[in-house]
C-alpha cells in the first residue's frame, strides 16, 4: 500500500514540476525585463534539480542526486554572476 502511494506521489510531483518548468520557460522567453528573465532561469534550474531528485527517488540511482547537486551549484553561481552583471555592468572587477 505505501509503495503505491509513494509511486503515485512521485508521479504527481513530476507532473507538477513539469508544469512549473513550462511556466518558468514562459517567463524566461517572454519576460519584459532582464530581471524577470534571470528569475525565470533561476526557477528553471531549481525545478530541473528537483526533477532529477524525483527521478533519483523513483529509480533508486545515486547518479541523479549527484547531477542535481552539480546543477544546483552551477545554477547558483550563474544567478549570482548574472545579478552582479545587471547591477554593475561587469562580472569581474
Automatic annotation (TrEMBL):
Ranges that cross the membrane: 6-26, 38-57, 63-87
This protein's UniProt keywords: Antiport, Cell membrane, Ion transport, Membrane, Transmembrane, Transmembrane helix, Transport
Recorded topology in the membrane: Multi-pass membrane protein
Pfam families: MrpF_PhaF (PF04066)
InterPro entries the record matches: MrpF/PhaF-like (IPR007208)
Location of this chain's protein in the cell: Cell membrane
Protein family per UniProt: Belongs to the CPA3 antiporters (TC 2.A.63) subunit F family.
Name the UniProt record assigns to this protein: K+/H+ antiporter subunit F
Organism: Microvirga splendida
Amino acid at each position: 500500500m505505501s509503495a503505491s502511494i509513494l509511486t503515485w506521489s512521485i508521479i504527481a510531483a513530476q507532473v507538477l514540476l513539469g508544469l512549473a518548468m513550462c511556466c518558468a520557460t514562459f517567463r524566461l522567453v517572454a519576460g519584459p525585463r532582464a530581471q524577470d528573465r534571470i528569475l525565470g532561469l533561476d526557477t528553471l534550474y531549481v525545478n530541473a534539480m528537483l526533477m532529477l531528485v524525483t527521478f533519483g527517488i523513483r529509480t533508486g540511482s545515486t547518479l541523479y542526486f549527484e547531477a542535481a547537486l552539480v546543477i544546483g551549484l552551477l545554477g547558483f553561481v550563474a544567478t549570482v554572476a548574472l545579478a552582479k552583471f545587471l547591477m554593475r555592468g561587469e562580472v569581474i572587477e
